[in-house]
Predict the structure.
Amino acid sequence: MRRALSFALTLLLCAHAAAETLRIEDVLTLEYPDEWRDFGADDSYDEENAYYNLAFIGGAGDTELCLSVDLYYYEEYADIRLFSANEATIDDFAGWLLEGCDGTLEAVRRVSDYQIPFVVLRTREDGGTVLSADTLTNGWDLSLSAYAYADAYSDALRPLTDAECALFLEILDSLEPLPD
């Protein structure tokens, strides 16, 4: 029994040690698998005071899991901070995110020592699955989206595996906000 426990602990420590840290200055850090690549932010679609791509990380292969970190501004939510909001406000935000999409609410997941609520959704897009986690502060929606392409052409998505969904949640759970 003791040997099995020692082996399990060693595996856990090795798995945790094999991680890279993504740091988005003045916003957050998060841990991702060591074998992934940091492709950097893509500012080609950024729109001042409306949308910013903050990061893009993922596996090196054409069909491996990818994660995009984005920031959207919604004027109608300028006065809302989910981390200090009541459950009804969080539920309303989740409902708003689901409007007009083919998706389901997976959970409201609280991360970091601050217990920041992230609305986790599973949506169907381009034939595949997208898992997203969103939180809101003063109109700014911090969104993490995980997906995988079906092939090298990147024109359709594929369904995510259970292991990929679990990995997305692990990455989300590692998120730590950075002070301004």
